[in-house]
Amino acid sequence: MFKDRATGVLGLLALAAAGCQTPTDPPPPPGGGQEYELDFDAFQQTVAPVLVEYGCHAVECHGGGIRGTFELSPPELPDAAFDFAQARLQVNPVEPDRSPLLAKPLAQEAGGEQHSWEPFSTPDHEGYRAIRDWIRSGELR
What are 38-50's pLDDT values in tens digits? Predict the structure, then answer.
């Protein structure tokens, strides 16, 4: 009886091992592995000044630690590379105009999302356009 059980267990282990083999080549990542590339210099010249002008980097907003999903470096310790990386996380490469970086500061009456501070009353606002143009300039590569 023990011999029959041992043979059965070994047979099941052999079947399980055969079905659990990994492929020789891993499947490609979703989306083909493309990344939405955005220009750092353009961010520094056009977007960062808007974020500063409207106080997004203030300690009580996004500059004092993460608020929601967006964090910026505090005004007393600016870190351009960190701010750029954080802003990129707020970009929707599939639907750039629906990026949180645009939707959150836009007034709800103009199509924005709920946010405690809505500095842009319309999509025609100069600051909104600066952010939108930077996002739209990105490319999938």
Answer: 999 999 999 999 9
